[in-house]
Design brief:
Number of helices: 11
Order of helices and strands: HEEHEEEHEEHEEEEHEEHEEEEEEHHHHH
Number of strands: 19
């Protein structure tokens, strides 16, 4: 499932990106020699009227090769063919503003795709946990966690992170994620009094959580077959309000109780169902896989469906694109200033895992994830780094201002710098991915 989701997502995003370059090149009369999805040896190849199309082995990118894209074409019979300088169908012969639009088209198509996918998601409707839009009131503090060590307690209300107000769990999660590996100051409201705590966040918060959760009632979601809970008659929607005579206020309190069991013994649960309260006695079973006693239930988390008419969905999609654009900008600036750790970056393995989990959750979640990655891909390619679209746009802009081409040697050295920078970054994020898998 993960591999399939990864290939579908990358295939769509790369195709859309290269299609942007292709269509704008054709619109300005540039001859396109090849259109490739992927790099390396071709798996499939076919010849169009004048363009060779292919799907290549390595699905981590693609390219559109235009006639005269380089200053000079390949040497022919020992001599340099300079026809691309004059040929009206060559990329080289086009005015700089057309070249810039051709370069800009790839990222533009990715950004437009993101907006279209957001419109689809908001029109079809998607579910998200209800707590994400609720204030950050702590319901549970994990034993031995970062949060417990700095003194955060149940029913604390977190209001700010590094002086920035966080209105709900979604904003709080984003702020912490951007500060992985950093020290942050958290302001919380406890018994009507504002308190501040300084927290050293884990380097990878997908592996080591902060350690707090919202207030979740101990409501039963799924009941596994042939388990103590199923045999005792527990049903989905039942609310556990007590165990062995002690009140239970949240799901995690019940989890802590179950984790404290060291031997097989009967437990008495106080259950609320349809406004009626009754008790059930059952005997947990030991799970060799989990290394603890269980009764065979999972929690029920409340969700809400986000769905809008088409006209509203368009507005929501644009708002979401703006919101994520600001978030991506803050991350890039944070990486440059050191506010955001490079350890938060992920590579192909992280994207594959992310896309696989999204597809398993549902098609709308997968489309939302694809839109987010498409947006990132669009903006990434607009960075003014040689060999990226943004780098080419920058060079063309400089040439337009100085009214002459940059020396070929300068372009060559800039290309080397761009490849070295991107290569180093790629190695780093893949190394990050591998460390996450090992850990």
């Amino acid at each position: 499932m993960t591999a399939l989701a990864f290939l579908i997502m990358l295939g769509v995003l790369i195709t859309i990106h290269e299609l942007g370059h292709f269509l704008f090149a054709r619109m300005f009369g540039v001859k396109v020699e090849s259109f490739s999805i992927g790099f390396g040896p071709p798996i499939f190849k076919w010849k169009g009227k004048e363009t060779e199309y292919q799907i290549a082995l390595i699905p981590l990118g693609g390219y559109v090769k235009m006639y005269g894209e380089d200053s000079m074409t390949e040497p022919l019979q020992g001599e340099v063919d300079k026809s691309a300088y004059q040929d009206p169908r060559s990329f080289h012969s086009k005015p700089n503003w057309q070249k810039m639009l051709i370069a800009f088209a790839g990222p533009l198509f990715n950004i437009v795709l993101a907006i279209v996918l957001f419109v689809v998601v908001y029109t079809v409707g998607t579910k998200e946990p209800a707590y994400l839009s609720e204030p950050v009131v702590v319901g549970y503090v994990e034993k031995g966690s970062v949060a417990e060590k700095v003194g955060i307690q149940p029913f604390d209300k977190i209001v700010k992170v590094n002086g920035k107000e966080v209105k709900n769990w979604k904003e709080f999660t984003v702020e912490l994620g951007m500060k992985s590996g950093k020290t942050v100051e958290i302001e919380l409201l406890r018994n009507g009094v504002i308190q501040k705590v300084s927290v050293n966040l884990p380097d990878d918060m997908t592996k080591t959580s902060f350690g707090i959760s919202p207030v979740f009632p101990a409501k039963v979601g799924k009941v596994l077959e042939n388990t103590p809970a199923a045999k005792a008659g527990i049903k989905e929607g039942d609310l556990i309000i007590g165990v062995n005579g002690k009140p239970i206020n949240s799901w995690f309190e019940f989890v802590d109780f179950m984790a404290s069991l060291k031997e097989k013994q009967p437990i008495n649960l106080l259950i609320k169902r349809d406004n009626k309260v009754f008790s059930i006695t059952l005997e947990p079973q030991y799970s060799e896989e989990l290394k603890k006693y269980t009764i065979g239930i999972s929690p029920k988390f409340e969700t809400k469906t986000i769905k809008y008419p088409l006209t509203e969905a368009v507005g929501k999609a644009i708002d979401k694109t703006k919101e994520l654009t600001v978030a991506i900008y803050n991350v890039v600036v944070g990486l440059i200033t050191g506010e955001v750790s490079f350890k938060t970056l992920g590579g192909p393995i992280s994207i594959a895992k992310f896309s696989g989990e999204a597809l398993e959750t549902g098609i709308t979640t997968f489309l939302f994830a694809m839109a987010f990655i498409s947006l990132q891909l669009g903006y990434l390619n607009l960075l003014p780094i040689p060999v990226l679209d943004g780098g080419l746009i920058l060079i063309l802009l400089i040439e337009t201002i100085i009214r002459r081409p940059l020396p070929e040697k300068a372009k060559e050295y800039l290309a080397y710098f761009g490849f070295a920078l991107l290569g180093t970054l790629m190695i780093y994020v893949i190394f990050n991915d591998i460390l996450r898998v090992i850990q």
